[in-house]
Amino acid sequence: MPPSLRHLRFVMILQAFVALFLVALTSSSPVVEKRQTLARVITKCTKPNTVALTFDDGPWVYLYDVSKALIAYNATGTFFFNGCIYDADEAKRVLYAYQKGHQVASHTWSHSDLTTLSWDNIHDEMWRVEQALQKIVGVVPAFMRPPYGNYNDLVLQASAVRNQSVVIWDFDSEDSIGATPAQSESDYDQIISKHPSTILALNHEIHETTAHQVLPYALDKLSKAGYNMVSVAECVGLPAYQFIGSPEIRDSTWHC
Ligand SMILES: [Zn+2]
């Protein structure tokens, strides 16, 4: 090989090494990013023949009637609570739901769109509800539903750090987006007529018609269709709580 060609080959090998080195250097941060654990996102129940009826935005005055309707059909509900639940009436409703055997979970504190918040603020939104549930009920929830169903990788990373699964839904009764009770009932009729193996249903306990009309209607139809109406935790076969203790005594820290 002539000396000029040998030199050229040496230069090419050197260039290849430099290129490899640069690729390794520049790709190191995205690789680390991908290694961040993301929380599990639940959009469906997995246990066959189950329906999980979920209720967001409470605890509100209709919670008692929602619970009574569920129990009348041997059903367990899941409540995603948010807001200042230290208020005496609200705390009473939270404890009532838990003591009646329903699952209590977090809908975060101030109903902010978590995808617009910083890492610290996302944790603050999550931590406040978890602490309140620990004081009021004595449990730390293992499930969280983000307001509006909105999440991004930062939200999922924060949830993973807090050992929580993120719960969305695969059926919306549309009670929070202006559906009339008749429309919500028709939505339930349609899904039940298709008879999917499972249903994870979104409802809002703050609407009087959801508590007094749509829910009793849906419970009757679901029950006749032969579904087991269970909590989200049960329908996916995971523990509802990270910790189960006893309610604390109200003190000066129970404030918003
Ligand atoms: Zn909500």
Automatic annotation (TrEMBL):
Cofactor field: Co(2+)
One term under GO cellular component: plasma membrane
Subcellular location: Cell membrane
Keyword tRNA-binding annotated: no
A single GO BP: cell wall organization
Superkingdom, natural source: Eukaryota
InterPro entries registered for this protein in UniProt: Glyco_hydro/deAcase_b/a-brl, NODB_dom
Signal sequence region: 1-28
Keyword entries, A-Z: Carbohydrate metabolism, Cell membrane, Cell wall biogenesis/degradation, Glycoprotein, GPI-anchor, Hydrolase, Lipoprotein, Membrane, Metal-binding, Signal
Keyword Transcription regulation: no
Membrane topology: Lipid-anchor; GPI-anchor
Domain NodB homology positions: 49-230
Cited Pfam families: Polysacc_deac_1
GO MF: hydrolase activity, acting on carbon-nitrogen (but not peptide) bonds; metal ion binding
Protein name stated in the entry: Carbohydrate esterase family 4 protein
Organism: Macrolepiota fuliginosa MF-IS2
Lineage per the UniProt record: Eukaryota, Fungi, Dikarya, Basidiomycota, Agaricomycotina
